[in-house]
Amino acid sequence: MTFNKTTGLLDLVETPAGQISLHGGPVIVTSTNTLKDFKHHKEGDTYIVEPRFDGGQWVRWVFAPGEPPRFDYTFSVKGEVDYIGIGLNYPEENIRAMEWIGEGPYRVWKNRMEGTRFGHWRKEYNNTVTGESWSYPEFKGYHADCRAVTLHTSEGAFSMIPSNPNLFFQMLRPERARGAGNDNTAPPFPETNIGFMYAIPAIGTKFQKPEQLGPSGQKNMQLNWVPFKGSLWFVFK
Description:
Layout: E1 2-3, E2 10-15, E3 18-20, E4 23-28, E5 35-43, E6 46-53, E7 58-63, E8 70-76, E9 79-81, E10 84-89, E11 95-104, E12 117-124, E13 141-143, E14 148-153, E15 156-162, E16 168-171, E17 194-199, E18 220-222, E19 227-236
Antiparallel strand pairs: 1-2, 2-3, 4-10, 5-6, 6-7, 7-8, 8-19, 9-18, 10-17, 11-12, 11-14, 13-16, 14-15, 15-19, 16-17
């Protein structure tokens, strides 16, 4: 795994089978993630990579013998936000399918959580825009209670396994409907295009903004600096 000492972020992954173009993270999606310091050192047989960012967050990579690479994090959010979580980037053009354990097969929004079942799911890549094309279920969006996810790509398959249950997995960013006269049905997404979220945005209708549709349509509000913490394992096959 190659890291950029200027940004502190992952640049590239090399496996015995070839390159995996995972990059640009993981980052805290509600932070500016400006690098203050970059440290790396050994602790016994374990190697630690510890970029230090502004905003009071704490993150580190852990490389231990016989274990997959692990990303640990702790961060806090206060105030009104669209989403809360960690994210990174992978080229959309390389993605062929996603396979996951969690709620499916459909995506969800904060105010549209019904209609899914917990299980083992797989769906092939599509670029469906609801109501404008018809390859369902839509591939892009947030998926609820994701316990593990594998991306099948032109570079091979790799998996991400979070330590916490009840997280939403972000798969890319859906395109805005070409015929839409407003952004009511185009909820915000992070700049990163894959990741795990503690909170996600709501969606509106053709005529109403999400905040006009009741309590679940409001933005996410954190009143106190309660920390979010966890780990994310990466398995390259």
